Amino acid sequence: xxxxxxxxxxxxxxxxxFRPDLNSKPVIVLSNNDGCVISRSNEAKALGIPMGAPIxxxxxxxxxxxxxxxxxxxxxxxxxxxxxxxxxxxxxANIEIYSIDEVFIDFYKxxxxxxxxxxxxxxxxxxxxWTGIPVSIxxxxxxxxxxxxxxxxxxxPDKTNHVYLIDTDEKRLKALRWIKVEDIWGIGRQYSRKLxxxxxxxGYDFIQLPDSWIHKxxxxxxxxxxxxxxxxxxLTLDEVVDKKNISVGRTFEKELKTLQELNERISAFASKAAxxxxxxxxLCSSILIYIHSxxxxxxxxxxxxxxxxxxxxxxxxSIEISKYAKFALQKIYPEGQAIKKAGIILTNLxxxxxxxxxxxxxxxxxEHILMNVIDDINKRYxxxxxxxxxxxxxxxxxxxxxxxxxxxxxxxxDILKVK
Length: 419
Prior knowledge:
The chain has 14 helices and 12 strands. By secondary structure, it is an alpha+beta fold.
C-alpha cells in the first residue's frame, strides 16, 4: 500500500501557525510582487477567490470581506516543509518527497501493528502537534489511487477526518466514478480535453478505454496510469534525480527600461542558477535568456524576446555564465523598452565529471575552487554574502512583498518574544 500525505492549504497554514487569530478567517497568500493568489484558506475559497487570481481584480472583495493577505514568505514555508518531512521520516522508512507540501509513503516494505488508516491518523495528529501544520492522507494500493484517496480525504473532511483508505474494489470503483479525468494525476489539460470530446468524463470511463487506444494517444505512460487506476502498482518511489534544466527568473517590482538595470538582474539570476548547477554537481552547455513586458496592460502590444546561446565550454562558473547571459541580453533588448519579467534557463546539463575540452581550451581549476569557496561562505552567511560585482546582493530577491510576515523560524531577529 502507498500513502500520499499533503499539507492542507500549506502556505496559509504556515502563516497561521504563529497567528492563531487567523483561524476560521479568510486568508490568501500572494506570489512574488504580490501579483496573484497562490494559496487560499477554505474560507477564502468559499468567497469565490480562485487560484491564480490577479489581486487587483479582487481588491474590492478582499476589503469588503476583510480577507487577510500575505506576501509569499518562502523562507518560512521551506523551513516548515523540512519539519513536516522530517517528522514523516521519523515514523516511515520509505518516503519520496514529491513537492514542498507532498510526500509519498511506501507501506509495502514497512510493517505496522495497527491498521494503516489508524496509523496515518496518529501520524497526522503527531505532525499537527509537532509542527502546527494540518495534513490530509490518502491510502491505496497504487500511487495514482493514493492521489485520488488524498483528494477525497481533503474534499470530505467531516466524513474522513482527513484520512481515507481505498482497500476494496468497491471503494476503488466508487472513487473512479467520482473523480473527473482532469483531476487525475498524470492526465494534463491537453489529454483531458481530448478525453472530454470522446465523452470520457471520469476515471471510471478512462479505464474502460482499450489499451491500444491509450498506448497510441497517451504513450506508455498512459498505459501505466490505467494499470495504476485498476489497482496494479507500476510506479515505485522515485529516487531524487538531478534537474534536466535549471531556471531562475522574476517578475520585477517595477518596469525596467535600461540595459544597465536588466544586466544587473540577469547577472544575479545567472549567479543563482550557477549555484544550483554546482549543488547538483552538473555543468551546462547552453543558456536561454528571456524578457517580456507587462502582459496585463490592455492598451500595449505585448513584447517578448528570447536568446539561446551555446557555450564554448561546459561550465558551472557564475563568472562565465553571467558573462554570456549579459551578451545574450544585449542581442535582444531594445533600449527604452519596458520589461516586467526576465529570466535565465540553463540547458543541456551533464555531470561535472564529463568535460569536453577542445584543443585550445583548458580546465580553469582556480575558478572552480573559487566557486566552491563562494558557495561555502554563502551557505554559512546567507545568499550573496559574496557576489559578482556586476549586481547588488539584494537584486535577486527584490520584490514588492508589502505584506511579508516575519521569518519566525529562520531569522534570529524575527523569533517571537514572550512577554
